[in-house]
Amino acid sequence: MKALVLEDLARNFGGLPAVDGIRLEAPAGRITGLIGPNGAGKTTVVNMITGLLKVTRGRIKFGDDDVTEADATQLARIGIARTFQNIRLISDATVLENVVAGFHRHETTGTFANLFGLPSAQRERRALEDKAMILLEQFGMTGLARHPAGGLSYGHQRRIEMMRALAMDPALLLLDEPVAGMNDSEAHSLADIFRNVARRGVAILLIEHNMRFVMSLCDHIYVLASGRLIAEGTPDAVGRDPRVIEAYLGA
Amino acid sequence: MLMQQLLNGVVVGSVYGLFALGFTLIFGVNHIMNMAHGAVFMWGAFAGLYAVILFDVPFPIALLIGAVGGGMVSVVLDWVAFRPLRKRGAPEFSSIVSSIGASLIMLSLAQQLTATRVMRFPFDIFPIVVFNFMGLRIQLLQLIIVGIVFLMVIGLLYYLYRTKYGRHIRSVAFSEQTSKLLGINPFAVNFQLFFLSGALAGIAGVLIGIVFNSVHFMMGEPLLLRAFVVIILGGLGSIPGALIAGLLIGIIQTLTVAYISAGMADALVFSLLFLVLLVRPTGLLGNSGAVARVTRI
Amino acid sequence: MMSFFHSYTPLFELALFNTLLAFSQYVVLRAGVFSLGTAAFAAIGAYVAAIVVTTYGLPFWIGIVLAIAIGAMVGALVAIPLARLRGVFQALATLALVQIVLSITLNWVDVTNGALGINSIPKTVGLVGLLIAVAIVTYFMAAIGSSSIGRAFDVIREDETVAVSLGISVVKHHFIAFVLSGAIAGLAGALHSYNSYSITPNEYGFNMLVIVLAMVVLGGRVSIWGPIVGAVILTVLPELLRGFQEYRTVVQGALLMASIIYLPRGVADTLIGAYRRRRIAEETSRMRETVTA
């Protein structure tokens, strides 16, 4: 049960601010939305939270820890998972192999057992594959387990990314435009999965472009434009906010 | 004695710089490590040599033929080894492997052409004129070499920074996608780029062939290995860096051979490469583009 | 049959030696490390093994153990400073290592006997010894490949950003890859010393680096069949081309270019991929039949 808190977070690129002092809170068990027009700096925020980009100013807190300076590997190991806006799978590997990769932070077999191919390493592999199959079943993809991930449809690939992130059993899940390019019914089935994940106590930060999807799913929404927060609140309040409408429609 | 060695170092080093220049030019624009650059250099030297042997051409024409020969070989190399990979958007690993393959072919053909012999330019290709200057023995050839190298560098910089073609090349180096949108033809840019790179290597080949009085099919390998050190030390993709680092390596090597031992020169030069990579992978004059390639994210 | 076997023994031995070198190159490439250090590690292994036996008169198995250990150690020593470098920079740093080792073996005459190399090393390893070594290394490669380490290697090679966001430590796995590469090449060098009576520095130079890289590129970088297939092809091919001695290198070069341009995943990985696709297609059509029936 850990919440994510961003305090006055900022990042410059070549002296120009891409994200300029935002404050945000994503509590455990809730789905928090971060929306904004293209180029608002949403993905920059995600990359800072996950340690891929260094922070220019401000702090990132996760639970009781200050994780501003932590690197990407450490952040993943303490339970921050993400999906990528442009799908990033191992395309030659099978669906199952892609999902199993998500369990990495839970692997317990030592390096030597792995190097020498000891039975414990083999047992762990089979156990992880079984766990991955359970995820595949939830996402209705059991039949595709042995298919190379690269050859599957866009919607399927998005789901594989999601399963890989869930395999990490995260405390914080960052979803970077998870339903981009999906039709409404596909998006709805994913929405149900997100609600279930949140119900288990995971903090979800949903970064989206699709307003309708965010409105239907989130408890609290932050709106970003040109690197600044311009509004926040419940979906209803944000939806009526003239500044948001202006940012989206362009004045 | 020390001054004399320094002078020799500057001469050798400026040719290293010339060789490395063509190498770093291609890396700067296409991010290709051209492992066949040594073979292009060797074929440039061959072109100059055969022109002299068969047609008895004078030194300047031999240089010109070496340049054109190297340039043409380099362009063909691009078409055969790199263009198919560029089209596919293959990773940098692929172009290294492909150019190693091309290099094997080019070396082997040269070996058969010459039956593995070491060949020489005729003695009268360049008159032996020696000046005595403050106790230094300076050969006319040495002066000419340093002069040619500096002229080439200035010419190259002029071409890249003062002409339309150079702007196109630099624009492709910045972003190939954007350049295409601006109507720049990448085919023409790569043609010029590889021709220039090969021509510089060809001139270096003829010069080295005359200075060391030997032309043979393996003559490119030591140059290529040194060029790696030069470009890393100077900063990958940096033109002034290549020249300065070339001079530096030439001097270090000459001094090591003169005062320590010939065998130590290689160990020292490559330890230097290792050290630079560890301490400052962007080199002396490296650009931020190179930095991004180290950290990737 | 026996005479056939006899006359080809040196070829088999060479193929096995090459397979070991290819495994050393393969393990780094699989982890996404562009190391060209295999020739350097193998040279170190070869010299350690030869010196242990000729200078100190110790039994050959001590030489083998030492060669593996020192190979692994040098791999580890290289891995630590190289952790910051990627791609081309890794390739150049390891290339420098090969050149440094080459200059040392050429110039430290008191120990290495310089350019003449070390001669009259007793032959203690034959075809069987090499076969056993290849079998053991293959087992290890298979075990590691299907373990957590192999999975991490695959993710790192394909996409380092994904790897770190899954909590995979790139530094740790690159370290493991370097150590394995060093150990395997050290073993290969030692066995070569004990198999070929003599060693010289230039065997372990730029040429070896190129051929070993070619084997793995041609064979494939993912499946453990890759290095085996690549080593066999590039060992046997020159024999088949014996009549065209002069064009051997040309063919090798052309093969290298053709394989990276037209078969970028290598022979073994391409074939395995095609086989898997066919099996999936068959399964799907079978499932459809049962549905319609």
Order of helix and strand elements from N to C terminus of chain C? HHHHHHHHHHHHHH
Q: How much helical structure, as a percent, in the residues of chain C?
A: over 70%
Per CATH, the architecture of chain C is: Orthogonal Bundle
Stretches with pLDDT under 50, minimum 5 residues of chain C:
none
* Biggest beta sheet summary of chain A: 6 strands, mixed
Unreliable runs of chain A: none
Oligomeric nature of the chains = heterotrimer
Distance between the termini of chain C: 54 Å
**How are the strands of the biggest sheet of chain A laid out side by side?**
6-7-8-3-9-10
pLDDT averaged residue by residue of chain C: 90
Gyration radius of chain A (Cα, Å) is 19 Å
Overall CATH class of chain C: Mainly Alpha
Rg for CA atoms of chain C: 20 Å
Can you tell me about this structure?
The complex is a heterotrimer of chains A (251), B (297) and C (293). Chain A has 10 helices and 10 strands. Chain A folds into 2 domains: 161 residues, Rossmann fold (3-Layer(aba) Sandwich), CATH 3.40.50; 77 residues, no CATH class. The mean pLDDT of chain A is 89. In chain A, 39% of the residues lie in helices and 24% in strands. Chain B is mainly α and 297 residues long. Chain B has one domain: ABC transporter involved in vitamin B12 uptake, BtuC, CATH 1.10.3470. Helices cover 77% and strands 3% of the residues of chain B. Chain B is built from 12 helices and 2 strands. In chain B, helix 2 crosses helix 8 and helix 10 runs antiparallel to helix 11. Chain B is globular, with a radius of gyration of 19 Å. In chain C, 77% of the residues lie in helices and 0% in strands. Chain C is globular, with a radius of gyration of 20 Å. The mean pLDDT of chain C is 90. At the B-C interface, helix 3, helix 4, helix 9, helix 11 and helix 12 of B face helix 5, helix 9, helix 11 and helix 13 of C.
